[in-house]
Write a structure and sequence with these properties.
Elements: H1 6-29, H2 33-58, E1 64-68, E2 71-74, H3 75-91, H4 96-124, H5 131-153, H6 163-176, H7 181-202, H8 209-229, H9 231-239, E3 246-247, E4 252-260, H10 263-277, H11 283-306, H12 311-318, E5 326-328, H13 337-345, E6 352-358, E7 361-370, E8 374-375, H14 378-408, E9 412-413
Antiparallel strand pairs: 1-2, 1-9, 3-8, 4-5, 4-7, 6-7
Helix pairs in contact: 1-2, 1-3, 2-3, 3-4, 4-7, 5-6, 5-7, 8-9, 8-14, 10-11
């Protein structure tokens, strides 16, 4: 239930892009930031009103923007989704003629699929959520929403307004960009019954030993070709949780304990980095002060290690990479230069670093193991590969079933109506 729908992820990406743009403007224009924000809010409301008026002039909101056997997507539903996309594209300077056709089709495809799957979930008896499921979803979404409100309030700071006023403006802003609490709750509830439908469709699919061996052979050929030519791909895949069946040389596993910035420090770090990006070198003093404020807490953890406490125990207590650690070599880039250099400076397995600065705070590293170069044996990876292939097998089968359902539904689209 912690997964998000594609529609939710698209909304978050667009919202993040908008707020990032506002943050850049604020850093560049300084005292003019509040003026820019006000102008954007007025423009955003006006542009969405313009889109709404145009839609209303074209068709009755209750008319069909798409129809299929068993249901309909109304113009009102389609236009509401389209407005969010249109506002984003307009903000980044695109003309409607350049995105309208593809954006409308994206909207209709998503809404049609959701409604067809809703019908299938009801048929399968998995649409209704239990009281416990509803309560868990509401608790998770409320927590995530409040965290995001607090985060985006920083982009709307105005010394002439109270915290309550800034909070309400932030909530209004999130609402206007399709990120209202009610919309997120609806998306999460939808994702819950979608996952139950997925399980109902794929529960009888199993991976045979023959299939698994063929999958291993295929992965081996693919991994060796890709990773021998591109270490960045290896690093990205392993940090993303993928188990390779072929490993390049010179790789070691590094565990770490993380002593992170708190929320306020994280926001301050982001603001400092924005200012530095615009050439404000004076911010280096502020950056040093930020790390200095966190150093006593990090040093206390290092002192406990030096006093004999086990690294794994402190990692479990405080937080960090987990037992597996991450793969690092001299070619690593994703973990940051300071992390990489500190990791590769450790001379022997079991060695522990001092305090290492990262973009999230401090980390303490431990050289856990060397990763054997070349082919990983089938027996060493078969359990993990079975899980991976089972997901791929089930996802492929489910997507094929969804495609069949949509094809059988005789969908008709009317994008010209909104």
């Amino acid at each position: 239930m912690n997964q998000m729908t594609n529609r939710t992820m698209r909304k978050i990406r667009r919202l993040t892009a908008i707020c990032a743009a506002l943050a850049v403007l604020a850093a560049a224009l300084g005292a003019w930031a509040a003026v820019v924000t006000v102008k954007y809010n007025k423009w955003s409301a006006a542009s969405q009103t313009g889109v709404s008026n145009a839609v209303a002039a074209v068709a009755d909101p209750t008319a069909a923007a798409a129809e299929f056997d068993g249901g309909v997507v109304t113009v009102a539903e389609a236009s509401a989704e389209y407005q969010t996309i249109a506002s984003y594209y307009q903000l980044i300077g695109m003309n409607e003629a350049d995105y309208a056709d593809s954006a409308k089709q994206e909207v209709l495809d998503g809404l049609v699929e959701t409604k067809i799957l809703e019908l299938k979930a009801k048929e399968a008896g998995v649409y209704e959520l239990t009281d416990a499921e509803e309560a868990e979803i509401e608790e998770n979404i409320r927590s995530e929403y409040e965290a995001n409100v607090e985060y985006y309030m920083a982009f709307r700071y105005d010394e002439n307004k109270t915290e309550d006023e800034i909070r309400q403006e932030t909530i209004d802003y999130l609402d206007q960009n399709g990120y209202a609490y009610e919309a997120l709750l609806q998306d999460a509830q939808q994702q819950a019954w979608r996952e139950k439908l997925f399980d109902a469709v794929t529960r009888d699919l199993d991976v045979s030993d023959d299939q698994l061996r063929k999958f291993y052979d295929s992965q081996l050929a693919s991994d060796e070709e890709k990773y021998s030519a591109d270490f960045a791909a290896y690093e990205a895949d392993t940090q993303g949780g993928r188990t390779p069946v072929w490993n390049p040389g010179g790789v070691r596993r590094i565990q770490y304990i993380e002593i992170p910035f708190d929320d306020a420090q994280t926001q301050e770090y982001a603001a400092i980095q924005d200012a530095l990006a615009f050439g404000d070198s004076d911010q280096m003093t502020a950056l040093d002060a930020l790390y200095s404020a966190l150093q006593p807490q990090a040093q206390a953890v290092l002192d406990r290690l030096n006093a004999g406490e086990r690294f794994e125990s402190l990692m479990a207590e405080i937080g960090g990479s987990g037992e597996a650690g991450i793969c690092v070599s001299d070619l690593s880039t994703l973990c940051g230069d300071e992390f990489r250099d500190a990791a590769m400076a450790l001379s022997s397995i079991g060695d522990v670093s001092g305090l290492v600065k990262t973009d999230t705070g401090y980390r303490i590293l431990r050289y856990a193991a060397d990763v054997p170069a070349g082919t990983a044996s089938f027996d060493s990876v078969k359990d993990t590969l079975r899980e991976t292939y089972a997901v791929e097998l089930k996802t492929s089968a489910y997507n094929a079933q969804v495609g069949e359902w949509i094809q059988e539904a005789n969908v008709k689209y009317y994008p010209e109506r909104f």
